[in-house]
Amino acid sequence: MKLIRTEDAVGSVLCHDLTQIIKGVTKDAVFRKGHVVQPEDIPVLLSIGKEHLYVWEADENMLHENDAARILCDICKNTMMDESPVKEGKIELAAAADGLFKVDGARLRLVNSFGQMMIATRHGNTPVKKGDKLCGTRIIPLVIEKEKMQRVRELCGDEPLLQLLPYKIKKAAVLATGSEVFHGRIKDTFTPVLEEKLAEFNVELVYKQVLDDKPEQIAAAIKTAIEEKGAEMVLCTGGMSVDPDDRTPLAIKNTGARIVSYGAPVLPGAMFLLSYYGEKQVPVMGLPGCVMYAKRTIFDLVLPRVLACDLVTADELAALGEGGLCLNCAVCTYPACGFGKGW
């Protein structure tokens, strides 16, 4: 750093905070370390007694923290994110729309392992609302080597480290199965729960049926929902346990759907089934009874991904074991909690 006259400091970078003290009025930094001096700043600097300033010397091999922060932001950002103004080497990103937030964890660790820079995000594979904060990026020192920032950019490649996927599925079908419901012995209380959950994502219920525990009827109804009613997702309720007369998993399999998993390491929701039907990969799910009465379950974890047409794998479901235990808190704060943060 070097000492220069304040009048000559326009365009220079301050090496430390400059504080103004007015008794009974203020004691705060007027300019922060890293501030680039502007012409209008000169009278203010002189008014606080600063006739000389310590500033950083220009170095063609170094980047100012704000310029380096721009690179970190570019590594992270995709088209559905809004960024904050750069300040003290820091830029934050927020959701520009509702959607599914995703993080490339391997590349995130790569950036954070370089040192002198950091990116902190919320958990990936979680639903977010427009305006929600997604991440914060920061350069730690005031200046950083250009070569280091260029190396990080090259290693991360052209694809953004973060994604915000819009929800694409807008039409769903619900097939309530079970002889007790079909014969009117009990009321179907499952479908209204699903209608409420789907409404949170502006999904329309275009087809619903109550069916007996007959695999051929259930399989036919799944195909009707997709091929004739235009359903982009099918939810089957009832018949998901291991009792001999629970036939929903068999019915889903008989449609020819590709079974991803029957069972998930999540409580509530162990007896969950996920499959994809046909060339269009239409999601067909078998929902366990807990979805009807528990506040949050495996269905809440998988639904945002399904609606964003983000295909879920068996390995990803297996990874939910860590964090897959809902604690049934007296006041539910999901998704602002640890439930389902394992994938």
TrEMBL record:
Q: Which domain of life is it from?
A: Bacteria
Q: Which UniProt keywords apply?
A: Magnesium, Metal-binding, Molybdenum, Molybdenum cofactor biosynthesis, Transferase
Q: What is its EC number?
A: 2.10.1.1
GO MF: metal ion binding; molybdopterin molybdotransferase activity
Q: Which InterPro entries match?
A: MoaB/Mog-like_dom_sf, MoaB/Mog_dom, MoeA-like
User: What Pfam family is a match for this entry?
Assistant: MoCF_biosynth
Per the record, the GO terms for biological process are:
Mo-molybdopterin cofactor biosynthetic process
Q: What class of enzyme is it?
A: transferase
Which chemical reaction does it catalyze?
adenylyl-molybdopterin + molybdate = Mo-molybdopterin + AMP + H(+)
Task: Give residue ranges for domain MoaB/Mog.
Answer: 173-308
Pathway named in the protein's UniProt entry: Cofactor biosynthesis; molybdopterin biosynthesis
Cellular component GO terms, alphabetical: cytosol
Cofactors named for this entry: Mg(2+)
Instruction: Give the function comment from the record.
Output: Catalyzes the insertion of molybdate into adenylated molybdopterin with the concomitant release of AMP.
Q: Which family does it belong to?
A: Belongs to the MoeA family.
Quote the PANTHER family the UniProt record gives.
Answer: MOLYBDOPTERIN BIOSYNTHESIS PROTEIN, MOLYBDOPTERIN MOLYBDENUMTRANSFERASE
What protein is this chain from?
A: Molybdopterin molybdenumtransferase
Q: Which organism is it from?
A: Phascolarctobacterium succinatutens YIT 12067
